[in-house]
Amino acid sequence: MTLDQYVRNLREIVARHSDPVEITELVAPLARQFAKSPELRRPEYRECDAEQGFGVHMLHEEPNHDLAVFLVSWLPNRGTTPHNHKTWAVVVGIEGQEQEISYDRRDDGSQPGYADLTPAGETVMTVDDIARCYPEHIHSVRNVGKDISMSLHTYGRHINYTGRSEFDVEHKLEKPYVIRVADDEYVRARPPVSSVTGP
Ligand SMILES: [Fe+2]
After folding, report:
1. What average pLDDT is seen over the chain?
2. Are 88 and 148 in contact (CB under 8 A)?
């Protein structure tokens, strides 16, 4: 499956469905198929952002930032803080082992900047595994393998445009979460960051 075919399929699905459960159920098998595409094996997609711990390579977004498709490459033993997405997500493992820790939120979200989270489960994603996330789902992701890991991420909307949050579990804090995406305005707005290439 090519990127063009994948995006055409995504457009058809979101034109007919609005429920994130239904959408991710339909997107998952297509994402798994697209994840095998030779066009995702370009060496530049293996580049990681050494400061951030992972490199985010944008394959597609609509002009209004909907339907964002990223290839993400993770340095060993690096990952994200706990975060939500405020949109649906489908992730497929392409290479390596990525640990996902899910969290339950115990407060009602009514106090700005405050969040009380508790770990709720752990899984490890390997090649061909699929993870589906809904808008309020909170998780953290870490490459627990010895080498670079890679995964294909498809979101209902580019995650820098959903108003999502990251969380400091120990200090019970919630704050805005924006990631650096290779070759977009978040990269151009900051000083260059050294990158490394995987094996
Ligand atoms: Fe995530």
Report:
1. 92
2. no
How many A from CA of 65 to the centre of ligand 1? 17
Cα(55)–Cα(73) distance, integer angstroms: 5
- Cα separation, 143 vs 136, in Å, equals 23
Q: Kindly report the pTM of this predicted structure.
A: 0.90
List of residues 6+ apart from 179 with CB closer than 8 A: 52, 56, 159, 160, 186
At 154-188, the pLDDT tens digits run 999 999 999 999 999 999 999 999 999 986 544 34
Question: pLDDT value at position 86?
Answer: 98
Q: What separation in Å is there between the alpha carbon of 64 and the centre of ligand 1?
A: 21
Domain limits of the chain? 3-192
Distance 84 CA to ligand 1 centre (A): 6
Q: Which helix (H) or strand (E) holds 147?
A: none
**Terminal C-alpha separation, the chain:** 26
CATH node for 3-192: 2.60.120.10
Instruction: Tell me if residue 176 falls in helix, strand or coil.
Output: strand
> What CA–CA distance (Å, rounded) separates 188 from 27?
31
